[in-house]
User: Fold these one by one.
Assistant:
Number 1:
Amino acid sequence: MIDHLSIHVSDIEKARAFYDAVLAPLGAKRVMNVDVEERVHASGYGTDWKPVFWIVEGQPTPQGHVAFRAVDHAAVNA
């Protein structure tokens, strides 16, 4: 049902090191990095090729991002 979620972190390199270490015992690993110049820095973690947990560098906020899986666009509109 939940496709993926993300949280903001203030220091992407420290957060990458932390989540690399703490998620490894759970069988999860970093499967994707996004580094676009000085604007966007993010990493996605998962147990396979698909990232399900994202860390995104930016001002930490109390809210995150949660995406639900849908079978098609019509289901989203419904």
Number 2:
Amino acid sequence: MIVPAWCVKYVGVPYDRMDCYELVRNVYLGEVGVNLPAMVAPATDDARREALETYRGPEWRPVAIGDEQAFDVAELALPVRQEDRWRFLLVHLGVVARRGLLLHTLPPHGAHTRRYGPARAMPERFWRWCG
């Protein structure tokens, strides 16, 4: 798997040092030159979903699946256990390294790249900074 050079400095950073939103913020500041607002880590999954919905301002535009490109932000649904059942909530972000390759972070692995696409787990939505 060919990983773009800009991704290398983020791969391996532990999740407890940089959660998914902090990864997006660091990539945008270091690679795109955009300082995204800080976000306090919410205590619950529902609060996290709501917080992730509000990080986007009018500077962000939706991107059709298949039209994503490097540095677009991907929103992913993760399974979340609530009482006696599982739900999938949009509680996770990543950055497109190149179409078909996502940079993201999850415990216990920390920041890493993984392929995505029709035969694999696919992000639900993509967003492009247009500010």
Number 3:
Amino acid sequence: TLTTGANPVLIGFMNECYNNTLNADIIFNVDIDGSLVYGTNGIEINMNAATEPHNCNWTLMSAPLTAGSHTFKVQWRVAAGTGTVVGSDSIPYNFWVMEMND
């Protein structure tokens, strides 16, 4: 949860991802106050080698929010197979939100 002014936020995510199925995407989305930023779509990361780690790093800028308290949640799903999102020594689990001011 973050209290902001009437400004957009910059959202970032940095983790390792795996999928046990070759070429099966892991699709990320962000929930802001109960609404998904990308609706039924998302940020797609292709797992081009089954079970090998991939850097699942991305950032996005939201539309301006209303002033007040906001809740942010990252969500992911797979197109096929079993996906895993983990932190590691080389890429620690990291999800952050930062208000952008003029």
